[in-house]
Amino acid sequence: MKKKIIMGLFVLAAVIGMGFAYPRPCSMCFGSGQQTCTRCYGNVYSKCPKCHGEGEEWTGQFASNGDMVMRRCLRCDGVGEIRCSACNGEGTRTCNYCHGTGSIDG
Ligand SMILES: [Zn+2]
Ligand SMILES: [Zn+2]
Ligand SMILES: [Zn+2]
Description:
This protein has one helix at residues 2-18; strands at residues 24-25, 34-36, 45-47, 56-62, 68-72, 81-83, 92-94, 103-104. By secondary structure, the chain is of the alpha+beta class. It has two domains: 2-44 and 84-104, no CATH class; 53-80, no CATH class. The strands form four sheets. The chain has a two-stranded antiparallel ribbon. The chain has a two-stranded antiparallel sheet with strand order 2-7. The structure holds zinc ion (ZN) (3 copies). One zinc ion is lined by residues 48, 50-51, 73, 75-76, 80. One zinc ion (ZN) binds at residues 37, 39-40, 84, 86-87.
């Protein structure tokens, strides 16, 4: 038991002595293991590209009174916003640099 602690201290001292504190927190995600989604920047929802946030789209037909006949946008289901597909609506993604571990060990 005591030997293990001494060994640990020795390794720690060696690491510090070398000037490299491994494992160290990932500089890309600051040790969290998660990065803000680069697609939506954490906003998760973005304006639907099909209906431009209107929630409905033109069917291409006109009603008898001349109004455009609209239908609910199928892409966003009438919401006008779609959830980010890059992060599945999480707003964050697993850090590519440390693969979600939050530290770099080498
Ligand atoms: Zn996203
Ligand atoms: Zn839409
Ligand atoms: Zn990271």
